[in-house]
Design goal:
Elements (H helix, E strand, L loop, with lengths): L1 H88 L3
Length: 92
């Protein structure tokens, strides 16, 4: 019986070791996959932020260009209104 008890005990220890080791290996594998996914997301976010910054810069440049165009148009309209006022005074 002692030999049979040793075999049972050994089988129990192997089963216990397997029950502990297999989930640990799966957990480790999942941690590695998640780490890779997070690193990929960080990289994608960095690229997105860079692209976003560039797009904002372009938008601000376009807005400033439009402001200059509007100022030029305002000057032209003011000059036109002044000429109309002069013509109205002289009844042309």
């Amino acid at each position: 019986m002692e030999e049979m008890e040793m075999v049972r005990t050994l089988a129990g220890l192997i089963a216990l070791g397997t029950a502990i080791v297999v989930p640990m290996l799966k957990l480790n594998s999942n941690i590695v996959k998640l780490t890779d996914a997070v690193n990929g997301l960080k990289e994608a976010n960095g690229k997105l932020e860079k692209s976003n910054t560039e797009e904002h810069k372009q938008l601000h440049e376009r807005i400033n260009h439009r402001k200059k165009e509007n100022e030029a148009l305002d000057d032209r309209v003011t000059d036109h209104e002044n000429r109309i006022s002069i013509l109205e005074k002289h009844n042309f």
